[in-house]
Amino acid sequence: MLFTELELSEQLLQAVADQGYQTPTPIQAQAIPVILQGRDVLAGAQTGTGKTAGFTLPLLKILQDQPIPQKPRPLRVLILTPTRELAMQVFESVRTYGKHLPFIAEAIFGGVSINPQIQKMQRGVDIVVATPGRLLDLIQQKHVDLSHIEHFVLDEADRMLDMGFIRDIRKIITLLPAKRQNLLFSATYAPEISALAEQILHDPVEISVAKKNAAADTVTQLVYPIKREQKRDLLSFLIGNGNWQQVLVFVRTKHGADRLAKQLIKDGIRCAALHGDKSQGARVRALEDFKKGSITALIATDIAARGLDIDQLPHVVNFDLPQVAEDYVHRIGRTGRAGAEGQAISLVDQEEAYLLAAIEKLLKREIPQVADTGYEKVSLNLNAAKSKSPQNAKPAPRATTGRSSRPSVKSGSSRKPDTERKPVNRQRSGNR
């Protein structure tokens, strides 16, 4: 199938061609015709499969077929995302594919001044891509009116639940018109997603182009059994010995990201840290430097697991395994995108063996372990540690309720969980 067979307008086809695309991905080929019919959609696909264009293109076509409203334009399309990075990515897609069309889009998220967003909303906007916290701020200040919404998109719904956004989502849904089109996209599935879908979707078409909770076949996955105190040295060795030019490294905590970045800089590796305590400007600069190759390693917490779209990213390293097994799929989904090959390496010590067991249970297969790292031969027996785990290889509980939800920490640990979200005062423009 070609994009020309999907009943898109000439302007949209020109924008697609400008990006060098001729053939839609499977999720695009299935979702675009259904969305154009006005149906509700529950869609699941691996990250990097083009699902953003899968809903952006048909929604732009639907708007194009309608008369342009009088000024100020009412807000007709609302797209909710869990993080600023994903909001910016979706917003850029809307601008890219809608560049030949007369529609106005705006991205709304915390961590930046609220005043420019207020001014743009007052002038009239057709499409808003938003994170829930800042959107509710603007709604409460009466700068956003959701009464004319015709199309509602919930992107990365599972991550929304993990981050404790369920109350915000329900509050926003109560402000939407009863008659609207609903599109729910998620890279992984959980029972909570099905429950949410039943609440907001009406007779949906379910689209799934990959196994649930599966990693892309283009990603080579390896486990390096290594003592925690040796992880930093092994990572420096892998980067230097392999002449890696671009690697995204995931750690569990913000403090850990800053510490590892400083250590790698001492090793002569150009790098930057990316996490929720960084200002929006610092996060944007770090991403831009990483994309253009000014830095080799980007050390990130799970805030970067969604929304990062980096062409041909060759390497992802799990310096710390995630507490929630599904997050592993999102992390390694930053490589091997759009059919390209990638490598995902996990540095695992014995104390993390139960997390590895949970990930392998989710993937329904074992991840190969490297016996000789080239740095030193491995003496750890992770398989034995898995069987001895008091957690019995169960993943940490998912956060499914309100804002107070926090990721679990391993039983017996004295360290408090490090989270990306902090309690905030709704009357202030916080870092949301």
Automatic annotation (TrEMBL):
Helicase C-terminal domain ranges (all copies): 218-379
Tell whether ATP-binding is among the UniProt keywords.
yes
CDD domains membership: DEADc (cd00268), SF2_C_DEAD (cd18787)
Is the keyword Protein biosynthesis assigned to this protein? no
Might you report a single GO cellular component term?
cytosol
Tell me, which GO biological process terms does this entry list? response to temperature stimulus; ribosome assembly
Region entry Disordered: which residue ranges? 382-432
Q: Which InterPro entries does the entry mention?
A: DEAD/DEAH_box_helicase_dom, DEAD/DEAH_RhlB, DEAD_box_RNA_helicase, Helicase_ATP-bd, Helicase_C-like, P-loop_NTPase, RNA-helicase_DEAD-box_CS, RNA_helicase_DEAD_Q_motif
Query: EC no.?
Result: 3.6.4.13
**Name of protein:** DEAD-box ATP-dependent RNA helicase RhpA
